Amino acid sequence: MIEVSCDIAIVGSGAGGGTVARELAPMVSQGLKVLLFEQGPELGNDDFTGREHDMAEALYEDGGGFLTSDGTMSLAFGRVLGGSTVVYTGTSLVAPDRVIREWCVPGLDHADIERRSRKYMIENNVHFLPRVLVNENNKLFFTGCHRVGFRAEQFPLNLRGCRGSSLCNLGCPNGAKMGTHRVQLPEARRQGVEIVSRAEVLRVEERALAVRVSRKPDGAKGLESPWPPGEYRVRARQVVLCGGSIGSTALLLRSEPTRGLRGLGERFTCHPAHILVAQHDHEITNDVGHPKSYYLDRSETDGYVLETCMYFPFVTAKNLTGFGEPHSTLMRAFPRLQMILVLACDKATPGNRISVDPSGRPVVHYSFTKQVIRSFVSATRTSARIFFAAGARRVHAPAADPPLIDRQDAYRIDDLIDERHFLPGRVSVSAAHLMGGCAMGAPGAAVSDSRGVIRGLPWLRVADASLFPDSLEINPYVTVMALADRVAEGLRETWRLEG
Amino acid sequence: MHNNVLQQVRPVLRAVAETVVPESRYLDDDGWVSLEATVERALSRRGESVQKQLVLFLRAVDALPALRYGRRFRKLGYVRRAAVLRAFESSPLLVLRRGFWGLRTLIMMGYYYQPAIQDSIGYRAHREGWQKRRTIGESPPTSGEQAAIILNDPDLSTDDEGGMRDSLP
Predict the structure, then answer these.
(1) A201: which strand partners?
(2) Which residue of A has its CA nearest to B166?
(3) Which end of chain A has a smaller Cβ tally under 10 Å, C or N?
(4) How close B114 comes to chain A (CA, Å)?
(5) What is the pTM of this model?
(6) Contacts of A129 in chain B (CB under 8 A)
(7) Is the ipTM of this complex over 0.85?
(8) Burial of A120: CB neighbours in 10 Å, binned 0-12, 13-18, 19+
(9) Is A46 in the B-facing interface, judged by CB distances under 8 Å?
């Protein structure tokens, strides 16, 4: 066991960890030692090939195939320096005022979240994509929405020099997406924060971390860890966990100082998602251009959000219900496919939670509530109408049996797409916005307070989406950065007071 | 167990694959090797219990049709094979539905991960994005578009048609 000491240890490098590292970096010049540990590898520019088969394995936990305990939903989250900011599409939204009010976290108000969110939107070059760069897959969504009476909104995106590869979810091969690996982490490193990749934090101890640094596997992408392989005990005066909803929660669940902490692992939510596909008579630009330009927010009234999207052949194939010739026919029509991503806005429910198995690996327990199934079905019906209004010849709806609906049957959408066809284990559902587990709330009652401090452990904080006490109902990274900014501010204040 | 998982059940795996993705019957030896290597790699990330479950599930898929059709799965024609798999897919038992979903997912991964297959279905995403499409003459660039691509200048578009805006929200 190698002993190392530092002042502040940060665990994780995504939206939370990158932000905390960047915000604390100026303290290094004041003599503080700040370490950041990332379980995944640090990739070089040449590692981003855009090829589905090797990027999925290099960037995602379990290659993107992490399953909930009953196997009915897959969860996608990054396992690489930069975390999930390497694999998102860069959509940058401020948390809705309504949601922050409903969270009811003492000391947290929307104005503060909004102010901090805008700071990072400027830092990450968030803007609207110029019209000439929006592809037909996106324009058809806007047109379809307009024709059925909805107004789609444009996503602000954190891009710089986007070439329209459409490969955002495989890590931008052009370095155009302003994730923490492009913005906050390089700046933190420049100011002296030491970043250690391939470093898995096994458990939290009293003001210390047990860390295992691994060698780069043969044939794997990325750089070797800057630290020699081995087991380390890292003493730290302050610890900030930013491993995401699943990573941070599982780490605390297998750690002695937080054993038995009430509420830990609970309030897990995730925006369960379907990919819906429609076939047009002619080819459209779909696998070129940024994949996500528009969204339709029906979260407040109907419990769902529709977003434009474009996925890769395997992900598309996996998400289509069924198999055999009908499935293959749709896949062969790839250049004519339009896609919509349905995000159901779930609510924190007692049974939906994170635990760990005897070996300490995270286990996510999740059941689809009736409300979520209703939202899926309602969203699928709306999407089918949007597809047909945009000119699609037929629509693939997972909650229909058979799932393909031809244009001449469009008038029967409400009959064909029905809750009785939503059969978990038959329809593919995946989620990428993983939230909760270390939920904020009233000091002394919740797992953490509004500054991310873990109850009863003033030296231990959390700064990631595990803090969310309920679903955010939008893409979460900007809100994670805003919360992480608050955590870093609290840490600086603590440091100042303690001299 | 890595590298040996499929060896035990290769004939039935191929029969299921040819039913799930009918075009897979046209794969050459290299194509099958690639498919199976991808499946093996995915399985190697899972625990040994998952690997055993897969083998067990494939054996069940092979054996159960004998009760109804008097033949193993791999000896059936396409129509009966599809009927068997549909029964698993829509089974009232979650364990059978998720078993089939997992098997189907592995097969689709092994098939659609292959670059040649991706090309064959018309998937053309490329790191050069719009520029690549234009260099093959699909859509000639305008000077304004070129500038937008290179600079990603948000001020290039001030046209509100289509809901576009140009300032920080």
Answers:
(1) A211
(2) A128
(3) C
(4) 8
(5) 0.93
(6) 154, 164
(7) yes
(8) buried
(9) no
